[in-house]
Amino acid sequence: MDKSDTFKLANSQANFTKNHFLAWDKEYTHLKWGGPAPVRDIQAYLLPGSTVLDAGSGNGRYLGELSRHYSAVGIDISLTALNGSRAQLARSGRFAEHLGASISDLPFKGQVFDGILCYGVLQHLFIKERESAVKEFSYILRKGGFFFFEAFGYKDMRCGGEASIPFEEKTFARQNGIIYHYFTIEEVRALFKGFGILTLEDVIKEKVFKGNVYRRHLIKGVFRKT
């Protein structure tokens, strides 16, 4: 491979990395509101009135419920998602701050949040982006603050497909331009090595249909900044 080929490959990889963020705005033009999602797991750790960030808040399924109990802020890379979230919260008579930003580069001062919720988001980043995001989370979370994590696990029936560009283990590209990474418990431990681990578990559900086993695999955890 000569220098021009190397440059073309690097440029292609950079464009793909940028596009996997931009793809979310298109995705949210047709994603339907799925109703509010419970936040009981968060309530078990955080006192009412705490400051909470929904990192990758999407169309506000968790953010709306968080705003009932906490001083809540939602960030997302998709402005379309944020607009939908604002409208949904307004219809419910609730309020939360909405900001457009990447979780790998957060627009907050240090130690301003008591808790951070990040459900189904880190699975859509490349490894360097995930590492940057966790560093950002550690910076904005107060000492003793809680981080609530959920992402796809590698035993999930959807783990597979076209390899991502750049290539990373257990990371795949979908036709919509969004990437999917499927975690192992060991990866999650390594990613959050700077936090105290309160809970970390595999959540596996299986259904049998016409003799075939269909498995859904999530990894869930609660971490604390020490």
From TrEMBL:
InterPro entries documented for this protein: Methyltransf_11, SAM-dependent_MTases_sf
Sample GO molecular function, one term: S-adenosylmethionine-dependent methyltransferase activity
GO BP term, pick one: methylation
Chain ranges of the Methyltransferase type domain: 53-149
Keywords (A to Z) from UniProt: Methyltransferase, S-adenosyl-L-methionine, Transferase
Name of the molecule in the record: LysM protein
Organism: Methanosarcina vacuolata Z-761
Lineage of the organism: Archaea, Methanobacteriati, Methanobacteriota, Stenosarchaea group, Methanomicrobia
